[in-house]
Amino acid sequence: MSGLCNEKLIYKNLVNGEWVESASGNLITINSPADGSLIGKIQANTKEEVDNVIALSKVNQKKWAKIPIYEKATILYKAASLLEERAEAISDILMMEISKDKKSSLSEVRRTADFLRFTADAGKGIEGLAISGENFPGGSRNKMSYVKRVPLGTVLAISPFNYPINLSASKIAPALMGGNTVILKPATQGSISALYLVEAFQDAGVPNGVINTVTGKGSEIGDYIVAHDGIDFINFTGSTEVGQHISRLAHMTPLLLELGGKDAAIVLEDADLEFAAKNIVEGAFSYSGQRCTAVKRILTTDSVADKLVKLLKPLVEGLTVGDPRDNSTITPLIDSKSADFAQVLIDDALSKGATLVTGNKREANLVYPTLIDNVTEDMEIAWKEPFSPILPIIRVRSIDHAIEIANESEYGLQSAVFTNDINQAFYVADRLEVGTVQINNKTERGPDHFPFLGVKASGMGTQGVRYSIEAMTRHKAITINLFEQ
Ligand code: NAP
Ligand code: G3H
């Protein structure tokens, strides 16, 4: 067994290249949401340990920044290979820790290996720029600005439970290529999977102290680390509530925030409805709807809705429900609080006159896929992010009405428009207040080198390989002044 955990399944943190236990002696037990089995115990770090990790990260950043980019890239390639070699074992842990079906868990690990390779390549492509002074009125060719990108320093990476490996790596790898050190604070439920990712980086040769980890409940240790003077950048993915809280604490520390969403699928009258229905069901229900980019509402007119509901119903009823080990699409939600919230949203909609098409069944934290028609604007499910397998249909009067309701949301992550008319597609896409509009596809983040961003309450800044490297580096300009020749 490697140093990251002992025979009692007590997991440790990586600090300056060593796997260490917290001096607090406090452990947090991680049980599987799928069957309650013990996954392991993680450390609850103290404030003093946070101080220590930040101090170490700052010292090591100076050394890491000096390592040539091609050497940094070589380490990332190695980490990618290790992840692939370990994909089966790591995905088994991921599957049970966050109750994600085996196929999706494996694909998360493999997608992350691809992400690391692509990030290494992109990092090698980052170049400087020389700008001649003569281009500006009154300037001179004896003056030149040499502009390069330099690291920000120590990046605090905070990842959510739903992609503990991919959304940790998508912060760590670009930060490293940019010459930063990283402190990873993963979601408590998801920490163990994230520690295996960090182990792969360490085994690949990331020097001691370049990646350090802190574990413990965000509600207890989060504010302290976020507000710490030693943090130079916060790269956060999680709920809007916590993201907004962090942005208030961060003072002048720059932030990249990827937060919640309420992605709409707008289905126009000329759309291929069979295709749209299949695509929307995949988008809404994969990993039980626990994705920021899940389709979280359908907006369509009466004439389309009647046909669409007939197509959606059998597809939703055909989804597999049960254990992640059986590759079920719908698995127990991350905790019972999430399932309680889902039930509140369903009950609220039905009590206000919405039509239950299928679902509204629950066994502990397993919520069956639920399709609700005739949802109106007074219902909570019209606006709230369920993060569970619930899909509401809101019937609209027209395309403009769909756009209006889509934009009324506090969120602005993505939206989809289904139509065979490219002019209508652009009419809608141009008017939606979101980071990305998908034409004839479900909302989704990938491919991972595309820009990924949310507007309004969905986030700040842009992710996606090159964009992430840029976000975690800054320009440095050196102006050269030649003597008059
Ligand atoms: P969350 O409850 O906001 O937690 C996210 C992370 O923040 C966890 O690591 C959590 O640690 C930590 N945290 C909590 N309180 C903190 C504090 N005061 N200071 C610093 N860190 C703190 O979100 P989640 O339940 O894990 O994930 C679901 C949410 O994330 C959804 O809203 C979803 O839409 C969003 N999400 C967005 C994207 C995107 O790219 N836009 C991607 C994935 C998920 P603990 O676990 O220890 O509390
Ligand atoms: O949960 C939010 C993730 O960033 C969504 O990624 O669209 O690839 O599932 P995904």
Note the main attributes of this structure:
binds NADP nicotinamide-adenine-dinucleotide phosphate, 6-stranded mixed beta sheet, alpha/beta, 39% helix, single chain, 14 helices, Aldehyde Dehydrogenase, Chain A, domain 2, binds glyceraldehyde-3-phosphate, 2 domains, globular
Q: What's the assembly state of these chains? A: single chain
Give the C-alpha Rg. 24 Å
Helix content: 25-40%
Overall spatial form? globular
CATH architecture of the largest domain: 3-Layer(aba) Sandwich
* Poorly predicted residue ranges: none
- Portion of residues in beta strands equals 15-25%
How many domains in all?
2
What is the CATH class of the largest domain? Alpha Beta
Strand order of the largest sheet: 14-17-18-13-12-20-21
Overview of this structure, please?
The chain has 485 residues and is α/β, with parallel strands linked by helices. The protein has helices spanning 47-66, 69-85, 87-98, 102-124, 166-177, 191-203, 218-226, 240-249, 273-285, 302-317, 336-351, 399-408, 422-431, 465-471; strands at 13-15, 18-20, 27-31, 38-43, 129-132, 143-151, 154-158, 181-185, 211-213, 233-237, 255-258, 264-267, 297-301, 355-358, 362-363, 366-367, 370-373, 390-396, 411-412, 414-418, 436-439, 452-453, 455-456, 459-460, 462-463, 473-481. The chain has 2 domains: 13-259 and 460-475, Aldehyde Dehydrogenase, Chain A, domain 1 (3-Layer(aba) Sandwich), CATH 3.40.605.10; 264-453, Aldehyde Dehydrogenase, Chain A, domain 2. The chain has 14 helices and 26 strands. Strands 14-17-18-13-12-20-21 form a 7-stranded mixed sheet, sandwiched between helices. It has a 6-stranded mixed sheet with strand order 9-8-7-10-11-24, with helices on both faces. A 3-stranded antiparallel sheet has the order 5-6-26. 51% of the residues are buried. The structure holds NADP nicotinamide-adenine-dinucleotide phosphate (NAP) and glyceraldehyde-3-phosphate. NADP nicotinamide-adenine-dinucleotide phosphate binds at residues 158-162, 167, 185-188, 217-219, 222-223, 226, 237-239, 242, 245-246, 258-261, 292, 385, 387, 413, 454, 459. Glyceraldehyde-3-phosphate is lined by residues 162-163, 291-293, 444-446.
